[in-house]
Amino acid sequence: MENIGGKIKALRIQKEMRQKEFAKGICSNVTLSNIENNKQNPSMEILIKICDKLEIALQDLYGEPIDTEEVKNLTANFDQLQWLCGNHRHREAYILLMEEIAEEQLITICFQKKYYYFLGLTQVIHLEKPDEAIFNFSRTLNTENEAKTETIEDVLALNGLGIAYTFKGEMDKAEFYFMKSLEHMKKFETEVLSEQKEMGKIAFNTAKHYSDKKEYKKAVDLCLEALSILINLDSRYHLSALYFLLGYNLFELGDRVNSSKNYFIAKALAYVDNNQHVLDAVDEELEKHKIVFDALI
Predict the structure, then answer these.
(1) Where are the transmembrane segments (predicted)?
(2) Distance between terminal CA atoms of the chain?
(3) What single DSSP character describes residue 235?
């Protein structure tokens, strides 16, 4: 890949724009500095904004013809994949991957990493093929950008490896990757909303891991951390599932009242988002424990 950061810096200077002035409306001054010095890989969202401000096409940065319309279509497809997976609709996500995206379309490292990650995620959750998922999560991690900087897909792939090894019953390996993803998540800095939302999902998946291990207090703490991330972003991404998981673990800790309240919130959000997976999970717990929402009013 070409030296994208250096090209951006040269073109900015050519337009006689200071870094702070140029960064306005795109990202922070620090982020732009990291991009220009190849210390940070720009997301496609930021890259498009940079090109707009420089009044150039993407192909001018990459030094080869790039179909801008194809880039927009790929971006829209990956946004849709994120939404589908966030609502536990992994079957639909897998079909979208198979029918709408071909590997030869993946014209940037950014798109390649997204593709391998979502392929791995749908393979482990929809197809229940953890070995194939492990292969594609590893491809995500092994596909490096020019600056060898970490992307959100790298952190998600580590988390995905935790899910895959859980499916295989290899809990020590699962624990290793869940903790590693959490460690990397806490260090990862981004101003891109779609990437920030994924941090909530990483905490959620790790909380579920501890819930499965019956370490309910750890699970509650991680649920609260994930909720804090998403509420601060004003995002409903994974929110119904988080409230359900929080309710479940609070119940296991003996807090029936707050558990019921969180089940109520989870069901309301799942109804709004048409998340049948969460609706079914809540109804199962309500039936099992004879919880009636009338008691909350």
Answers:
(1) none
(2) 59
(3) -
Cβ pair 173, 165 in contact under 8 A: yes
Compute the CA torsion angle 69, 75, 77, 78 (nearest 10 deg): 160
Range of the domain at 284: 216-296
User: What are the structure tokens assigned to 245, written together?
Assistant: 């998981």
Instruction: Write the single-letter amino acid at 292.
Output: V
57: left (phi over 0), alpha (psi -120 to 50) or beta: beta
pLDDT, tens digit, 9 for 90 and up, residues 72-85: 889 899 999 999 99
143-198 pLDDT, tens digit each: 876 566 789 999 999 999 999 999 999 999 999 999 999 999 999 988 888 899 99
pTM above 0.90, yes or no: no
* Structure token digits, residue 44: 């496609």
Number of domains in the chain: 3
- Which residue has 């988390």 as its token pair? 159
Would you say how long the chain is, in residues?
A: 297
Does 140 lie in the same domain as 185? yes
